[in-house]
Specification:
The protein has 75 residues and is α+β, with helices and mostly antiparallel strands. It has three helices and three strands, in the order βββααα.
Length: 75
């Protein structure tokens, strides 16, 4: 178990848009993953984010999240 501050929040907005919430303060239904591409890949393969956010997530959204998370890792 990790604290929320050690993890990244992914949200589904009221417009059914799925995105990373780096600040952790945006409105919307949220799910947390660790700050690692392997965690995102695991969440994709198990459909954990889709279950948590109660929505279908397209491959394009996953790819955009992968790029954002990769940029976040290099900072």
């Amino acid at each position: 178990m990790k604290s929320k501050k050690e993890m990244l929040r992914i949200i589904k907005t009221a417009d059914n848009e799925v995105l990373l919430d780096i600040t952790g303060k945006k409105n919307g239904r949220g799910a947390y993953i660790c700050k690692d591409l392997t965690c995102l890949d695991r969440a994709i393969s198990t459909k954990g984010l889709e279950r948590s956010l109660k929505t279908v997530i397209s491959a394009e959204v996953y790819e955009a999240m992968r790029k954002e998370l990769g940029a976040f890792d290099t900072e």
